[in-house]
Write a structure and sequence with these properties.
Blueprint (H helix, E strand, L loop, with lengths): L15 E4 L11 E10 L2 E10 L3 E6 L14 H17 L5 E10 L5 H23 L1 H4 L2 E7 L6 H5 L6 H9 L4 H9 L2 H11 L5 E8 L4 E8 L6 E4 L32 E4 L8
Parallel strand pairs: 5-6
Antiparallel strand pairs: 1-8, 2-3, 3-8, 4-7, 5-7, 9-10
Length: 280
């Protein structure tokens, strides 16, 4: 009884059926370098070196003497929308590594110092509660918090580049060694100056700043669940079960190239892979 070895070429495609993280193949949003790729069980495991990603900064304004977020105040709406888009992007980018999130509340220098310190702290707490409710920041990231009253000296640059009345005198008051309360008193003695400060310089200082810092040089492992490896089906071909048609020139057993494979006593098999996209 003759037995035939019938070689067939099988082309398999690994198809992702589920992912443990969101795959960005062949490219990812984060600037990264693929270090290695291996098959581990039913997962394709890729290791990346995250090279660089710009940190993200956001500024959300608050009303004077208020620590309650107003989403429609002075462009807060677009800023909050952009922050939301960023969070969605972080969830979609499996390689994005957030090292920390800093939330800092600020108050402008005008007004009683104790009240300003309280406002700065309450603004930080208010916005932290907002992002925790909406995005779960404290569950996902290392969130650092702080608060600060902006000193008069830090508005010097804004005053110097502004069209405030009596600008040189304002700069002299800011630069002198008097107390914050005395500076405010001197500035309020110039009504046009104070009106300009109240409308243009001080409002942006009443804010919360959010900084999202990304880890640089981190190695990230991305695991993608693949279709399980198929188990080959072995079919034995014998002369009795599947004789070669003697006159079919397309049949491999008629090709002289297969003569050496048709040896007496050899076991002929077909490896049938259960995939519909097999190329012959």
């Amino acid at each position: 009884m003759k037995k035939y070895v019938i070689p067939i070429l099988v082309s398999l495609a690994l198809t992702p059926v589920a992912t443990t993280v969101s795959a960005q193949s062949p490219a990812t949003r984060t600037d990264s370098v693929l270090l290695s790729e291996r098959r581990e069980g039913d997962c394709l495991v890729r290791r990346y070196l995250v090279k660089e990603r710009d940190d993200a900064d956001y500024s959300i304004r608050y009303r004077i003497s208020s620590a309650k977020l107003n989403t429609s105040l002075d462009g807060n709406g677009p800023v909050l929308s952009e922050l939301g888009d960023l969070v969605e992007g972080l969830l979609a980018d499996s390689l994005a590594q957030v090292a920390r999130v800093s939330i800092t509340g600020y108050a402008s220098p005008d007004g009683p110092a104790a009240l300003n310190r309280t406002l700065a702290r309450q603004r930080m707490q208010d916005f932290k509660s907002y992002v925790d409710r909406r995005y779960g920041f404290s569950r996902k990231y290392d969130v650092r918090t702080g608060s600060e009253v902006v000193p008069w000296s830090e508005i010097r640059g804004a005053v110097a580049s502004s069209s405030i009345p009596d600008r040189q005198r304002v700069l002299e008051i800011i630069d002198d060694g008097s107390s914050p309360a005395d500076k405010q008193t001197a500035l309020k003695r110039m009504p046009a100056v104070w009106e300009y400060l109240a409308a243009n310089i001080l409002p942006p200082l009443r804010r919360v700043a959010v900084e999202i810092d990304y880890g640089q040089g981190a190695i990230v492992e991305q695991r993608v669940r693949m279709a399980p490896q198929p188990t080959p089906e072995v079919v034995i071909i014998t002369e009795e079960s599947a004789p070669c048609p003697p006159c079919d020139p397309c049949n491999p057993c008629q090709d002289p190239c297969y003569d050496d494979l048709m040896q007496s006593g050899s076991l002929g098999v077909i490896v049938a892979m259960p995939y519909s996209d097999v190329d012959f």
